[in-house]
Design goal:
single chain; alpha+beta; about 35% helix; about 20% strand
Length: about 240
């Protein structure tokens, strides 16, 4: 099916949802037959549906101007069980800046401790973050479904499709958005790709649990993984599982 026209409004805040319309910040009412919540981990639609979000991670990073850290030109992932538990810190270069960050589950590692350890790593690696923006954001990994009352749909982080192990959620957002669009156009459409995402997500969370429970052997596991990925077939397999 094709749509003749689509109206897109930008800069419009949704402040309230009822069973038949949404209310914007300017008190405008927009009526709907189907409503898709693609509004992230703090989804107002998820809250309207009274769906709890307990499995929520938090990620934080510095945005360092590229001219301030010209030596950081490669993607880096750092594992350190004492500082980062089962997760990792990252250095992700972009065109104008470098994202330097870390993420975890506050229920496993308190935010204050996580930030303290992250800053300790920053100091140890001698990364200059003076005057740089420090940002934090939630990552919802608490999946409870994506279709509700055959009327409401949640996609991406709003649905809790992000990986609790890698923190990745962009791919899941794109795929679930496309699948929900197909489902709205064809009620008999079977969202096979979302099922595939959920299966891979289960693998990620199983890996996370294993690493969390490994305790003093955690760094040993990290070292084995780093050594193993020197083999191209192993690296390809691991990359396929994690991305």
């Amino acid at each position: 099916k094709s749509l003749k026209s689509v109206d897109i409004e930008t800069g419009v805040e949704v402040v309230k949802i009822s069973d038949e319309n949404i209310v914007t910040g300017s008190n405008e009412k927009i009526y709907f037959e189907k409503l898709v919540g693609a509004d992230g981990s703090n989804s107002i639609l998820r809250k309207h549906l009274k769906i709890s979000s307990k499995l929520v991670g938090i990620a934080f990073h510095y945005l360092v101007p590229i001219e301030q850290c010209k030596d950081l030109s490669e993607i880096e992932i750092h594992f350190d069980s004492k500082l980062f538990s089962a997760w990792y810190s990252w250095i992700f270069p972009h065109r104008d800046y470098v994202s330097i960050g870390y993420g975890c589950f506050p229920r496993v590692k308190q935010f204050s401790t996580a930030r303290k350890n992250f800053l300790q790593w920053i100091e140890r690696t001698k990364i200059d973050t003076r005057g740089c923006q420090f940002r934090s954001f939630p990552i919802n990994c608490d999946y409870k479904g994506f279709i509700f009352q055959n009327k409401y749909y949640l996609v991406g982080d709003a649905a809790g499709l992000a990986s609790g192990f890698t923190g990745e959620g962009i791919f899941q957002a794109f795929v679930s958005g496309e699948e929900v669009a197909e489902k709205i156009l064809d009620k008999n459409y079977r969202c096979k790709k979302i099922k595939e995402i959920l299966n891979e997500r289960k693998i990620h969370h199983l890996m996370l649990v294993i690493i969390l429970l490994s305790g003093v052997f955690r760094n040993m596991i990290f070292e084995i993984v780093v050594f193993s990925v020197k083999s191209r077939p192993v690296a390809r397999t691991l990359l396929r599982i994690l991305t």
